[in-house]
Design a protein that fits this description.
Number of helices: 10
Shape: globular
Radius of gyration: 34 Å
Structural class: alpha/beta
Strand order of the largest sheet: 2-1-3-4-5
Low-confidence stretches: 135-148, 282-301, 321-347, 364-368
Number of strands: 12
Distance between the termini: 118 Å
Strand content: 15-25%
Helix content: 25-40%
Order of helices and strands: EHEHEHEHEHHEEHEEEHEEHH
Length: 368
């Protein structure tokens, strides 16, 4: 008896040949696949059969791929959608990225490319769903073991936004791969055709390169490390930009793409991820305890003893006050200082007769 499928995938294309090819490739790899010749039929199928991933052509008769994408996102914002596109449709691809598409496959595509993108987006979808469940659970404070997951904490909405920003950068620069990695070597997000088994090695090499350039900067008297890195090969160029001390953006781009264009789009991406990263840091950063303001030590004065002849006089009841600290330091919180608390406000005012009755003025019969 066959085991459970790895995932349920819906392929939407008005070309029967494309539907059959993708169904054969994905079915052989253990996925359950259904096909639809149009966006309208795809919506009907999804009403009765839950899907884990949708792969749709961008240009179809009737409902377009972008229209289908928007309808899918209205019903299930976390359902990943991959689009199929031709070489000349990059403007439409960028529009699809902004509408929430997970990634794209450029025709003609290979079997390995289909499987890599499918596996990665399904895995990413499960991670986002797990984060969503954990955030709603009272036990969500438990953290994963060190090194098994990124140390930064992102909400599902931020993760989806981050994926969209990376996908848009990939479409704008026609990059083969775009990655966002932590200084620990963990991959926060990745888009493109890079084989998953190569990701750890690539991350390690990028971090080693970063360490080397930091040493070069130090030797040259630079106060900070170089934030931008560029490696040029015969076929591709690698761009790396430090977003923060904990995050690095990496793009593997065909060498034919102009450097100026790549850096322009990369700069925009860095700014977007900085905003998302700042929100994540604020959520996970512990709140620093408020330190009390400590005034200088004041010695307790020695009060004179009451005179015997005045012992029968009953003093007014003393005002109950908090006990001072053991070393007689006086502590004032920031709230008290902000409210304008003054030492004079806490001093009891006595008349001359009251002070005499309490024996606070000593023997006033001088020369008697």
């Amino acid at each position: 008896m066959a085991g459970e499928p790895l995932a349920n995938i819906l392929v939407v294309d008005d070309s029967e040949a494309v539907c059959k090819a993708l169904r054969d490739v994905l079915t052989t790899s253990g996925y359950a696949v259904r096909t639809a010749p149009s966006g309208e039929r795809a919506m009907q199928i999804m009403e009765t059969a839950p899907m884990d991933l949708v792969i749709t052509d961008l240009k179809m008769s009737g409902m377009s791929g972008i229209q289908l994408l928007k309808k899918v996102k209205e019903k299930n914002p976390l359902l990943p959608v991959i689009i199929l596109t031709g070489f000349g449709d990059m403007d439409s691809v960028i529009e699809a990225m902004r509408a929430g598409v997970a990634d794209y496959l450029k025709k003609p595509f290979s079997i390995n490319q289909v499987l890599q993108v499918t596996e990665r987006e399904l895995k990413r979808s499960r991670q986002i769903q797990a984060v969503t469940v954990a955030a709603a659970s009272p036990l969500s404070a438990t953290s994963a073991p060190a090194g098994s997951a990124p140390s930064l904490s992102f909400s599902p909405k931020d993760l989806e936004r981050m994926d969209g920003v990376l996908s848009e950068l990939r479409a704008q620069t026609t990059a083969e791969s775009v990655l966002l990695i932590e200084e620990t070597g963990c991959v926060i997000s990745s888009k493109g055709m890079l084989n998953g088994s190569n990701l750890p090695s690539l991350c390690a090499l990028v971090l080693n390169c970063r360490s080397t350039t930091a040493q070069v900067a130090s030797l040259l008297g630079e106060e900070k490390s170089f934030p931008l890195h560029y490696l040029e090969g015969q076929r591709v160029a690698v761009y790396a930009a430090e977003i923060s001390p904990t995050m690095i953006l990496v793009a593997v781009v065909p060498k034919s793409v102009k450097q100026g264009a790549v850096w322009m789009y990369a700069k925009k991406t860095v700014a977007e991820i900085e905003k998302i990263g700042a929100r994540a840091v604020q959520r996970v950063a512990p709140v620093a305890p408020v330190e009390p303001v400590v005034l200088t030590h004041v010695a307790q004065p020695t009060l004179p003893q009451p005179r015997p002849e005045l012992a029968s006089v009953q003093p007014e009841p003393a005002v109950t006050r908090p006990e001072p600290a053991a070393d007689f330091d006086m502590l004032f919180s920031e709230e008290m200082l902000a409210a304008g608390t003054d030492l004079a406000d806490s001093v009891q005012t006595l008349t001359w007769e009251e002070a005499m009755a309490r024996g606070l003025l000593g023997d006033m019969n001088v020369g008697a």
